[in-house]
Amino acid sequence: MTGLVLDLFAGPGGWSVPLHRLGVREIGLEWDQWACRTRAAAGLLTVRTDVAMYPVRPFVCRTRGFIASPPCQAWSRAGKRLGLVDQPLVHQAVADLATGRDTREKLLAACRDERSLLAAEPMRYLHALNAVGEPEWIAMEEVPDVLPLWRQYAQILRGWGFSVWSGILNAADYGVPQTRRRAILLASRVRTAEPPPPTHARHEEPEGLFGPGRQRWMSMAEALGWGATDRPVPTVCAGGGPGGGPEPFPSGARKTLVAARERGTWAPHTSASPLVRQADWSWSLRSNNQTNATVRGIDEPAGTLFFGHRANECTWVARSDAPHTVAGAAPEPIRITAAEAGVLQSFPADYPWAGNRGQVFGQIGNAVPPRLAAHLLAPHLGRVLTADDFVLAA
């Protein structure tokens, strides 16, 4: 079957990166101007539009695959979660749209969060496409609390002849350096819908009778190119000033880890340089500023990172591993960079992000991890992924 892939709420390209690399024609509908600029810089075909207002007609008799990742802000634990309050209204909208009845205006007026009803928009498109036997396959993603809604979609789609699977997947099980859990719906007219087999696990598995075992979850250090075992350790320069050089993290400075390494102010703990005295530090990533924030060492995957929310700013924090440390030498917490955040979401290290820091973080936080997307899409596209298909670090 020929045709294009339609991607609703396409964002900066979480689904698009694997589609583009696999040579699949895709068109994304997206409203955010900075996400659209990022997509343009990445060479992705995009229509800047409000998905709720755009007509389905241009895609009828042209659509092979259908993707949707509605905005998660109304449902996310990082926000007020008014989507849960509005959930009965969203279910009603889905049920109505599945029969061709458009009650969105009335239901929207009753919603506590106007974004809640966007989760029903995929059904408007699917109802029109189903009339001509399209699409061949469907992939949708949202935060875990949306799973009951995906189950409603699944029931409707089965009535239309689709094989459907819905459930929760952990992105770390597919090589993403982040334990990001998401509600997934997969549907197909031509094959049994089922989740892709995990490629990674918390602990490395030995080879068995049926082939190699799963790899250990990818760590932040591996993804960022720091190496899983070659732990970066900040050096504390003796005395500062002439002969000693500047300290790597002067008081009040917020330097990035990567920049520090490039400046030469990182050194392995075996360094014997006469100009430095060593203190052993290990680095961890704190997922937000809250008291219950997840803190993971660089030899682990990150916790779920709510990039783009000011209250959930992610920072690198140092912990001493040595019984005796140099007084006053502990580096200050360091804000994660947008480039690092993108890699931890499994985007390519050189991805052409557009916008300022906040605009880029917002795009990253709302995107599907491309490496997870690749595994979800590959069976529908008749592809088998290899370990070299998606290299995270440049």
TrEMBL record:
One of its GO terms (biological process) is DNA restriction-modification system. Its EC number is 2.1.1.37. It is an enzyme of class 2 (transferase). Gene3D superfamilies: DNA Methylase, subunit A, domain 2 (3.90.120.10), Vaccinia Virus protein VP39 (3.40.50.150). PROSITE patterns: SAM_MT_C5. One of its GO terms (molecular function) is DNA binding. The lineage of its organism: Bacteria, Bacillati, Actinomycetota, Actinomycetes, Kitasatosporales. Belongs to the class I-like SAM-binding methyltransferase superfamily. C5-methyltransferase family. This is DNA (cytosine-5-)-methyltransferase. The active site is at C72. Keywords: Methyltransferase, Restriction system, S-adenosyl-L-methionine, Transferase. Transmembrane segments: none annotated.
